[in-house]
Amino acid sequence: MSDSEARKVLKIINRNISLSQGNIFQLRKDFENLYLKFSSNQNLIVKKQEIEDISAFKIYTEGVNKDNIILFFHGGDFTIGSTNDHLDLCGKISAASNLPVLSIDYRLAPEHKFPAALEDCLISYLWLLKKGIKPSNIILCGISAGGTLTLSILLYLKQKNIELPLGAVCMSPAVDMLFQGHSIVTNGGKDWITRKRLLNLKKVYLKGKNPVYPLASPLYSDLGGLPPILLQVGSHELLLDDVIKFHKKAKESSVEISFELWKDMFHSFQIFSSCIEEGQNAIDSAGTYIKNLLNE
Length: 296
Known about the structure:
Blueprint (H helix, E strand, L loop, with lengths): L2 H14 L7 H14 L7 E7 L2 E7 L8 E5 L13 H11 L3 E5 L10 H15 L7 E6 L1 H15 L7 E5 L11 H4 L8 H12 L22 E6 L5 H13 L4 E6 L14 H17 L3
Parallel strand pairs: 3-4, 3-5, 5-6, 6-7, 7-8
Antiparallel strand pairs: 1-2, 2-4
C-alpha cells in the first residue's frame, strides 16, 4: 500500500472522529462508530463472560484450538474503546492464530483513574489461572492502550513472582507517559493521534501520578526476565521513537523481543485491515508469531 493510499484512509478517520471532542460520552460513541465502519463482518462466535464485576467476551472462529487462549486488551487511550468496537480485530487475531480470544472491558478514565484499568486486566489473568489454565497456555495481546496494559501486567507479575504467560503481542503501545520521542514532532500530521491528545491523556489517566512510574510507563522498568514479546508499530506513528527505545532496552535486558516496523502506517493500523493490506498482513504476522510460540 502506498503512502498516498494510507493518507486516503487517514482522511476518512479524521472526517469521522475528532479527538478534541470535549464530551467524553460522545467521543466514545464516535470512536465506536468509526471502528465499526471498518468492520469486515466476519462470522464469529461471541460468548459473554463475567469475571467478578468485569465484562468480558470470548471471541473465536470455528474450529480453533481451545487448549490455549489469547487474553486481549482493547485500545482507546484508556478513556474510550470496548470489545464491541474491537470485535473485528479480535476475530481476525483468532483466525490468524487459530485460538480463542478473551477480550476485557476494563474500567475507563476519567471515571476510573490509573491503576483501575490495570487492576481489571490483572484480575482477568488471575481468573484464567483459577480456571485451571496454565500460564504456558496464555498469550497476552493488546493494541494502543491495551498494548501498554499488556506490558504493565507482565511487569507486575514479574514483581510479584507470579508465573508469567507464554508471551505477548503489543500493537502500537504507549511505553512512556512523558511522550518524549522526537517522532511526536516529526510524525505530526501523518498520524490521527495528536500531541495534544497524548498530553491530555497523561493528565486524565494518571491524575497527578508520576508519569515515569514503571507500571504506567513500561520504558522505565527493569525489563529483564520478561517472556517473548512481539512489538508492531507504524513508521508514521507519533509513538514510534518511544517504541524503538523500548525495543532497544528490552534487547539489552536479554528479552526475546521481535520488532516489526510497518512502512507508512499510522497508529493502530491493524484495526483498519478491511481496507489496508498492511493491517491484515500485520495481524497474520502476529498469528504466525503466536503459533510459533506454541510450536503449532
